[in-house]
Design goal:
It is built from 3 helices and 6 strands; from the N terminus they run E-E-E-E-H-E-E-H-H. The chain has a 4-stranded antiparallel sheet. A two-stranded antiparallel sheet has the order 5-6.
Length: 152
Amino acid sequence: MNEKVVMVSNGYERIDGRNAYKSGIKRLTLGAPMLEENKKMQIAAQIWKNDKDGKLILAQELPIHQIFDLMIFLSRTLLYFKEAYRIPLLYNPENPLVERIGLQGDVLPVEVCTDNQNINEDIRAFSQSLNDLGEIIGERQRVLSRILYKLR
């Protein structure tokens, strides 16, 4: 294990959404990056799994800013789908842009993927999946909201 790990969350497999108690993810950590492509970053988050011998191995690593970017992207998507039911196709084919979020002197565009040839079916399935995951997502949103409020 990386001696540069500073924070650890063991036992993640017990709370991994619908994979709880049968997840392959065993541990989450925060610390210095381990993967070469992330060495320019100061802090990264790591996801650990057991290999075939039961030894913990690094499965994935993301720089901290990418985790925030994913949360911003996901949060804006969740907000969009709270109101999307008002639009017949759940999106406007003429204007699929949801929002351009200013970050780092540029923008993070959030838009419906009209390159998807099956977008009309896939967006409905996606929306239904968000509804089906409401309990799991909602609990995490409340916890995250409480923590982010305290960080202000």
